[in-house]
Amino acid sequence: MIVDALSRYSARRTQLTAAKSSPGEVLEAAGDLMRRSSRVGVEGVEAALRGLGRPQVEAWLKAQKPQSLQPVLLRAAEEAVEVALDGGEESEMWRTSALEGLAARDRAASAAFALAAWEGLHGALDGEGAQLRDRFLSALGTLDSSLRPRARWFIPLNPQRRQERDLLDSAEQDTAWWFSARAGCDDLVATWTGRPQNLTSHLQGCTECRADMADAAPVDAPPRRHLTADDLWRLDMGLLSEDERSRLDAHTARCGECAQAVLALDEGDEAIDEALDMEEGTVGRSARSSRAPVSHRPTSARHPEQREVLDERRDFRVVLVRERQRVRLLVQPLSGRSVTAAVFLSPGRPSLKPTHGPEGIAFDLTSASSTGARSAHLSVQAGGETLDRDFSF
User: Fold this and answer.
1) Whose CA is closest to 161, among 151, 150, 171?
2) How far apart are CA 151 and CA 181, in angstroms?
3) What are phi and psi of 321, to 5 degrees?
4) Do 107 and 179 meet the contact criterion of CB atoms below 8 Å apart?
5) Domains of the chain with bracketed CATH
6) At 387, is the secondary structure helix, strand, or coil?
7) pLDDT tens digits for 121-159?
8) Rounded to whole angstroms, how far apart are CA atoms 373 and 367?
9) Beta-strand pair 316-322/385-392
10) Tens of pLDDT along 299-356?
């Protein structure tokens, strides 16, 4: 496998002199070789960089959009988790696709490395060229700051990641977090599909793995006190205090079993009221008077829709919507720019699929909250603007 990878990088040398190679391809190929110089050498690199003119480099920089790597890496993260969860015939397909995402980030690192070498040969960029360079490097730094802490998503790819890491020169290995971060944490994968009976020495000694398991513990075994029959009766009769109702709402927001019980209570109220409306005489009126009127009980207002604006930018707004038995995240476009968004739960949990409607891009968090999950990761891109953050629900 190492030999195959070395051959692949050695073959990149042909792009240094190929007539059809673009400036970007030359920079990426040169950087690939320079960052692995101890393995493949740098023959032909300097001549290729000297052949790139300043206008060519500045035009390439102007076309760069490093923020577009964010959805690529997030998709690679989802695919890497599928490798661990699937285990079937499709796992190899997921693995190949995820590794292509990591390779895209590595090519950007190689281009940045070669750009610095180019400046060493031609002199530093100035004016607009310097601004474009700084914007390019700053965008890569922002991307890494947001995604490096989530390198655990790529643990299922560790055998291949370690191989790629070891091909890099020692000075480059730690910087290439997409290959090196959490590259020794293979044992964590077993905790995603079922907690192992005996923790390995790595899981016991790795601070990052222990923190991940501690974060996942409330999801795997959430401590709950389910609603009792008395709780439901007092709720139906409107006898709960405001504090008790708040605690009940918080519990049903994350407990699917109790949420179903409250929903059944609501449906029962509606059926009874409909039946009584069809009856005439004192029996119907007496039966109705024996129950707290629906408008005075908390049933109809027990879960009013609540909207919380989590973030607002020029091109989009992020809104968390809490309804009676539903929690949604909305990403609402505010301009004519196209908006893309993704929501990821913790590793080992499926990502959420968006739906598009008149309010924008919607993610249904209800099923996630019913398992005890309380947070997720949101990524939004609109034009040149990106948002990457965790949020609680």
Assistant:
1) 151
2) 6
3) -115, 120
4) no
5) 2-184 (no CATH), 190-221 (no CATH), 229-296 (no CATH), 306-392 (2.60.40)
6) strand
7) 999 999 999 999 999 999 999 999 988 888 998 999 999
8) 9
9) unpaired
10) 344 445 688 889 988 888 999 988 767 788 999 988 777 888 888 876 555 568 888 8
